[in-house]
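Q: What does the predicted 3D structure of Crh-like protein look like?
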Amino acid sequence: MVLPSSVLVSVLMALPATLAATTSIACSADSQCPEESPCCNQYGECGSGAHCLGGCHPGFSYKKEACMAMPICKDVKTTFGSQAYPNIEQYLGNPEDSDWVYTGYALNNDAGDALLLTMPEDSTGTVLSSSRYMLYGKYGATLKSSRTGGVVSGFITYSDSQDEIDWEFVGSELDVAETNYYSQGALDWNNFLYINDTSNTFENYHTYEVDWQEDHITWYLDGKSVRTLKKADTYDESTGVYKFPQTPARVQFSIWPVVETAGQGTKDWAGGVVNWNSEDIEKDGYFYVTLKDAYIKCASAPSSIAVKGSNAYVYNSTSLFNQDTIMITDDDTVLCSFDNSGLDDNSGCAAGSSSESSSESSSGSSSESSSESSSESSSESSSSSESSSESSSESSSSSKTSSSKVSSSTKASSTSSKPSSTTSLSSSSSDSASSSTQQGFAQSVGSTSTGEVSTTSLGASSSAAGVVIKSSGIMASLAALAMLVIS
């Protein structure tokens, strides 16, 4: 699961490339954020600014109104390779600025026909997220995965209340694609399914799609249906709840590493720990996912949703997050500054949004920035905790048993290592937007007696106990998953 760069309440300057640690206030279902740092981001950290945009949990924040409203779905069709996209550190929440935002190192390839999501040595990768949310519809992408054991790529949807739908790829198994889903962040080892009907996912482009509707989810590989999940089959009689993704979610792509601090089950699943001396690092200076194109086709709003506007999705409950507690309103989605939250007056700020780069769909003009990613670029990583159990009622796709794995939406930090070729898309770090926490892979959390989470920027010598290496993307997420270390 996947997760974006965040702006801490106490503004942090860029960290050095070596191991550096900071602390932030932790948030969860049992511990809401304080008023002075009101927004609980996707990684279970309190703050303002970017904490209050994509990934802000309405139930874990000081008040649900602290989270900015979620920009409503609009159809997107993007051909990658020549556009510039804003880094999340420059983005205040106006979806008209760009269809996509990123953390980490996103590069247009030399041929100009694809976007590379890269992971330089000793970094925690890159996450590309849609700027708008979707609530049902069909979405897809044509891409090549990364390769090498210990390197994971993901293509997911992830909601602020931790619903998730996954395509995921392990670099040591290039003839396999993996599917999974989560409801409200709850771990269920029976939701995971391998899809063997593919060919080398690093060398060959494949098209991965998901048809997400009110009553079912269908995964497609190269136009062929390979798995279907019916909502009716997710009903939990003990709670009276359908454990089915049903809340507005962003589309995310990511690449992230498995490192020494991971649990043994995670290492086994990922084909070992990342080897920073592998062929791609020696040749190119980074591991990479190659993203050719993507689309999002929005569904009509379900009849159960109250429509009081046309700009954004909001929740009308702080304790229940499902289709029945969503409204469509004209609420603001744009912050006036990185010091603000949804509790501040942000009216009129959409016209002067912070991003200078506008993303273009395949029919639009393109521009490209040559500024390089900052050493503190945060990266969302979509990695999902998944089990080896297969759902026998779903699809006839071939499957196989795995050891255990961890979920895909935690975040971590990149170090100063940068890609050695091509052009980095706009990503200089501003003082007000620097973050010491970014997406990567959730390994473990060191908590203090005051409820703070110790977050350590991953460097070459990172070996401290309690390191949290969070993942943005794909890919299930947050502090709850960060606490789960499979051993």
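A (community wiki): The structure tokens above were generated from the sequence. Residues 20-482 form a domain with the Jelly Rolls fold (CATH 2.60.120.200). DSSP finds three helices and 29 strands in the chain.
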